[in-house]
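Repro:
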Amino acid sequence: MTGELPVLRGEGLTKTYGSAANEVHALTDVSVELHAGELVILRGPSGSGKTTLLNIIGGLDVPTSGRVWLRDVELTATRESDLVELRRRELGFVFQSFALLPMLTAAENVEIPLRLVGTPVAERTSRVQELLESVGLSKHAAQRPDELSGGQRQRVGIARALANRPAVLIADEPTGQLDSRTAATMMDLIASLVHEHSVAAIVTTHDPRLLGRADRLLEIADGRLAGAALTSRKLLRARANRDVSSRA
């Protein structure tokens, strides 16, 4: 990218299932880096290894071989009790299924991560209001998930994922249950929040119409990364700025 150290790094990640006689290779020697303020889109067909990769770099699963670092902490060498705390404080997850608690309001769902880390009440209240405002749902704070549209529920999920100001945002097909127009709006929102808050983000999607939102695009097939398919927009902007400066 631009020379800065990655926020999250996976190296030589391999994941196999089954016995030696009938092994399934979900991932094979995958290496990936995520940088602050960068939206990486990971695309590939169903069964290509996208979700497996996200689960491993998010500390939800362990690789058969390979290592993952969050800054200078090796997640793959961290005991589960410490991993739980790291996930709560440093990683935000957005799910295709929204994964909201139906008996709680939008505000209460967003508040869950803050409660889990013991954030004081006044700070929780302020942070929840700020987050709901940032995703355009300040007027829907008291509504429960069944009173919200699919797009609104996913906005609540995004706000919840950002509640503890995570270093990394991991989103697995976050627009999979949304119509194309709402999906585009949702990806614009994610991109805006990632750049505004300097979050390192990786998002999987099947929808080719959403690829233009990426700072970098990765392709995966049969458990192997095909490499960076697109140059980072940041580099393109930097090159454009240098060209303008050189002509001045």
